[in-house]
Amino acid sequence: YDVFDTLSDRLSATFKNLRGKGRLSQQDIDDTLREIRRALLEADVSLQAVRPFVAAVRARAEGAEVSKALNPAQQIVKIVNEELVGILGGETRRLRFAKNPPTVIMLAGLQGAGKTTLAGKLARWLKTEGHTPILVAADLQRPNAVTQLQVVGERAGVPVFAPEPGNGVGDPVKVAKDSVDFAKTKMHDVVIVDTAGRLGIDAELMQQAADIRDAVRPDEILFVLDAMIGQNAVETALAFQDGVGFDGVVLTKLDGDARGGAALSVREVTGKPVMFASSGEKLEDFDVFHPERMAGRILD
Ligand code: GDP
Q: Which reaction equations make up its catalytic activity (predicted)?
């Protein structure tokens, strides 16, 4: 993912300085950690995530972790790699499906975060996994949103549940509720509810999302986060955690050229795992989030 390019380059430059050293002095470790800390902060990883990360690497680097098979530089890389996997959530957190279908997945996030696009990607992916999802247009804020979801649904080959003109228009809570009944009768096993987002955090938006949540009791609430919004990501995530709550995070725009620290902070700050990654405008630019692979790419 391009968002990590700068961080990758900085880290590999740091590790290069250690190459060929037979033994690391305290000074080597201090210098390396300072560089790692700086690289993370410059990539927009929040201080709240950087501190425990650097402390953990330090403790292990200074500790008795000596391996005969690895030289000191390789050992540091190994430690950083493992700590990156940890900060990214450790294990892959998979979707939980309801015992009694339909499984209801609700998407929340700021406008422009990539929710509607993500809804289509998720639906398409679920279809390839053998599910029979529907998309639900519960974003009735933007005039264009319903049409946009219909376009996405068509591309994904997935039906879209949208308000009938004159029947419940303007009431996203009712639309969401009706969609679950619809899914039950039509044997759709997953319902993906796209909700409205505003450009900024907004009490009314939060309340609407909370009302939809209470009406459909989602099995999974996914917070959709634009990886390019930098340091604001943490604040936004916390506001959504507070206002709506969520079970997992979807990172979008990982193909962007910005500093991708948001991705590395969100798990530490919210305690919620990143579950999916979105990296382009095409429906196929989507994958389950694998912390180990992601760490591997950052250190590649
Ligand atoms: P919503 O307001 O949260 O529903 O966001 P949209 O799904 O409408 O996405 C906002 C813009 O971001 C659109 O132009 C999308 O094509 C674009 N977009 C969404 N996901 C990605 C992504 O992963 N990468 C890139 N480059 N663009 C994306």
A: GTP + H2O = GDP + phosphate + H(+)
Ligand 1, residue 194: give the atom nearest the CA: 4
Q: From the CB of residue 243, how many other CB atoms can be counted at a distance below 10 Å?
A: 17
**Cα(190)–Cα(159) distance, integer angstroms:** 11
Residue-wise pLDDT tens digits, 103-155 = 999 999 999 999 999 999 999 999 999 999 999 999 887 778 899 999 999 99
- Cα–Cα dist 232/98, whole Å: 33
Contact 123, 158 (CB under 8 A): yes
For residue 102, cis peptide bond before it (omega within 30 degrees of 0): yes
What is the rounded end-to-end Cα distance, in angstroms, of the chain? Answer: 11
- 253 in contact with ligand 1, CB cutoff 6 A: yes
CA dihedral (107, 113, 115, 120) positive or negative: negative
